[in-house]
Design goal:
With about 140 residues, the chain is α+β, with helices and mostly antiparallel strands. The chain has helices spanning about 5-15, 60-65, 95-110, 115-120, and strands at about 1-5, 20-25, 30-35, 40, 50-55, 70-75, 80-90, 125-140. About 30% of the residues lie in helices and about 40% in strands.
Length: about 140
C-alpha cells in the first residue's frame, strides 16, 4: 500500500472512467450517498471537482443547508486504489458554465461524439453546476501489492 502523490490523484480522477460516490448530510443527520459523474477543473492541489445535479435532488437540498461533502473515487481493478476528498460545495445556476461543464462531463462518460448533445440536454433551467473545493485529500494505491 502506498500513499498517492498529487500526480497519482489526478491520474485516478482524470484517467479511466470512474464514478464518484458523494456523501452529504440530511437535515436529521442521516448520511446520504449518491453516485455522480464528474470532471476536474484545475491542476496540482488547487483543483475542483465539478458535477451537475437537478435542483430538486436530495443532494442539492443537503448542500444548500450544509455545503460540506465527502466523496470517494476508487479503482476496483487490482492492485486497487482510491481517492477520498473532503471539501465544500458551491452551487451555481450560471447557464454558460453549466453548458461548458455538462459538455465536458458528457464527453468523459459518453464519448466525444456525444459530448455536445449531452451538454445541451443537461444545460437547462433547473440543472445546477456544483463545484467541490477540497479541504483534505487522501489517496492510496497498490492496496493489494
Amino acid at each position: 500500500m502506498q500513499k498517492m502523490t498529487i500526480a497519482d490523484i489526478h491520474d485516478l480522477l482524470s484517467g479511466h472512467i470512474h464514478t464518484a460516490k458523494l456523501a452529504t448530510v440530511r437535515a436529521d443527520g442521516r448520511p446520504h450517498v449518491a453516485s455522480i459523474w464528474y470532471a476536474i477543473d484545475g491542476a496540482g492541489e488547487q483543483f475542483q471537482l465539478v458535477f451537475t445535479s437537478w435542483h430538486e435532488t436530495v443532494k442539492v437540498a443537503n448542500l444548500r443547508r450544509d455545503p460540506r461533502v465527502c466523496l470517494i473515487v476508487d479503482d476496483e481493478t487490482p492492485p486497487f486504489a482510491f481517492v477520498q476528498i473532503e471539501g465544500t460545495a458551491a452551487i451555481s445556476d450560471d447557464m454558460a458554465a453549466l453548458k461548458q461543464w455538462a459538455t465536458v462531463i458528457g464527453g468523459k462518460y459518453m464519448g466525444a461524439d456525444k459530448a455536445e448533445a449531452f451538454g445541451t440536454r443537461n444545460a437547462v433551467p433547473g440543472e445546477l453546476l456544483i463545484r467541490v473545493t477540497p479541504t483534505k485529500i487522501i489517496g492510496t494505491k497498490d492496496m493489494a501489492g
